[in-house]
Amino acid sequence: MQQLIEAIVKPLVDYPEDVRIETDETSNRVVYKLFVHPEDRGKVIGKQGRVAKAIRTIVYSAAGGHQKKKTYVDILD
């Protein structure tokens, strides 16, 4: 899943080397924490959160077939 998120996010940003993803997994959920350069945060979130929502939709649908856990994508500082 991390590779999918990176494949989506890296072409959008000006600093692809600063894209980092951490995974926080518990028994019933998986949280992917996406870190980007501060100047790229707006590009990843998009106007009214449209890009972030699209990223989450793709990841949720891909994870639904692979994992039986709830999946979340957080965009952090």
UniProtKB/TrEMBL annotation:
Record bears the keyword Translocase: no
Keywords, ordered alphabetically: Cell shape, Cell wall biogenesis/degradation, Chaperone, Cytoplasm, RNA-binding
Gene Ontology BP annotations: cell wall organization; peptidoglycan biosynthetic process; regulation of cell shape
Subcellular location: Cytoplasm
CDD domains on file: KH-II_YlqC-like (cd22533)
Domain of life the protein comes from: Bacteria
Cleaved signal peptide residues: none
Coiled coil ranges: none
InterPro entries assigned to the protein according to its UniProt record, in alphabetical order: KH_dom-like_a/b, KH_sf_prok-type, KhpA
Family: Belongs to the KhpA RNA-binding protein family.
Assembly information from the UniProt record: Forms a complex with KhpB.
Role according to the record: A probable RNA chaperone. Forms a complex with KhpB which binds to cellular RNA and controls its expression. Plays a role in peptidoglycan (PG) homeostasis and cell length regulation.
Protein name: RNA-binding protein KhpA
Organism: Solibacillus isronensis B3W22
